[in-house]
Amino acid sequence: MANDDNFKKVISHAKEYGYVFQSSEIYDGLSAVYDYAQNGVELKNNIREYWWKAMVQMHDNIVGIDAAIFMHPTTWKASGHVDAFNDPLIDNKDSKKRYRADVLVEDYCLKIEVKINKEVAKAAKRFGDAFNKDEFLSTNGRVLGYQEKIDSVLKRLGQSLEKEDLADVKALIEELEIADPLTGSKNWTDVKQFNLMFGTKLGASAEHATDLYLRPETAQGIFVNFLNVQKTGRMKIPFGIAQTGKAFRNEIVARQFIFRMREFEQMEMQFFIKPGTQKEWFEYWKDARLKWHESLGLGSENYRFHDHEKLAHYADAATDIEFNFPFGFKELEGIHSRTDFDLKQHEEYSGKKLQYFDPEENESYTPYVLETSIGLDRMFLAVFSNALQEEDLENGTTRTVLKLPAVLAPTKAAIFPLVKKDGLPEIAKQIVEDLKWDFNITYDEKDAVGRRYRRQDAVGTPFCITVDHDTLDDNSVTIRHRDTMEQKRVKIEDLKALIKAEVEMKYWLQRMF
């Protein structure tokens, strides 16, 4: 229940402080579609730039593209999306509500995981500093029983989905006595497959229009441009192609705020490699991507790898980097060894060769592909929900603070005049003019300074800079750090270097390179 309350606070805070709004809210909204508000768009842009700099600019063998959302319809036949881009759907006959069958089972396992966490919390309280969590998890009989149950359920689910044995998926739901979350009813229909692609038309008249799809992923735009990029960029294997962009899926159950939406943004990189080297590159990108996440300081304990029980027919390895969201560990990024499936499929359907001539081997071959794919919206939610905290202060009060990584914060510093007279606003506005060329800066002169501090804490601004009467004499200001609330006097001419040292991407990314 506490987690539900925390998540409600995340959603409420996102709206109240200009991060995320319900789309078309004045018309009662549109389900699972959201707008990024004035602070949200800045945070989202900063996350995208942080990924792009690490993925593209810091690698001399990775380049970027921006492929169109509309693609030739045969693209999706070749990729398998027309025939196989499905989710298992199940309806409750009493509530008339529709659910993803696999999500119902996964939520069942998540409830067992909550029981494990409660056992860990009780033991930690009982044993205090002597408590060894890893030893407890590996030896406690009750916890081992819970974990065995989770493993067996997920394994059976994965095997059933892989074999497309939808009857067994329904049987599993019934055996586990999974009920409709809203009504408690266990009166289920058979499980059916549901295609997730949105269809549309291209053409001036209905009779001559071409059936198209809104792309359900960004990867195919990379694959069909493989040879164009390789030749024009004179790229040598191994090399990667990255892009960010919108994708669209008609999700059966879109929920959990921006975690699962019908219109979302992906950040993907396809890494083309020599066949036979996929195992080492899979391990390389697992390590590299986890380092990128950990460089943001969200807590290494909030990440874990989850290897896929069910592999796509073309894949020979797949894992997810999961993050501990307010509703539990869920997928944040996928790392997949896709073999040569994609390029060969597009070769077959297009009739064009998509091979690489290797000058060292003096032969042509179809490269294998290692994929890293992260949802930008999910990354936004991970950062935002992790940052939102309520702190008890020494004076007996509390503060709500959004401890965003400074490198990602929408606004880097807020400039305050202590009072709206005596020339202090003029000095403060001149500081804004000087700093805004390098950072996103805001000016605030309303209310007492303490209230302004609280306002900037809640919006996530790392620094507050106050111009007071002493500034007139010593050309110094008070700078306050959001996380520690520490205040110190610094010269105005030193502000740029001080802020830069805390917010520049270079200093954050050096943790991983």
UniProtKB/TrEMBL annotation:
Its EC number is 6.1.1.14. GO terms for molecular function: ATP binding; bis(5'-nucleosyl)-tetraphosphatase (asymmetrical) activity; glycine-tRNA ligase activity. Residues 176-417 form the Aminoacyl-transfer RNA synthetases class-II family profile domain. It is an enzyme of class 6 (ligase). The keyword Ligase applies. Signal peptide: none annotated. It is found in: Cytoplasm. Substrate binds at R100, E217, F264, E265, Q266, M267, E268, E371, T372, S373, I374, G375. It comes from the Bacteria. ATP binds at residues 249-251, 259-264, 331-332, 375-378. The keyword Nucleotide-binding applies. SUPFAM superfamilies: Class II aaRS ABD-related, Class II aaRS and biotin synthetases. GO terms for biological process: diadenosine tetraphosphate biosynthetic process; glycyl-tRNA aminoacylation. InterPro entries: aa-tRNA-synt_IIb (IPR002314), aa-tRNA-synth_II (IPR006195), aa-tRNA-synth_II/BPL/LPL (IPR045864), Anticodon-bd (IPR004154), Anticodon-bd_dom_sf (IPR036621), Gly-tRNA_synthase/POLG2 (IPR027031), Gly_tRNA_ligase_bac (IPR022961), GlyRS-like_core (IPR033731). Belongs to the class-II aminoacyl-tRNA synthetase family. This is Glycine--tRNA ligase.
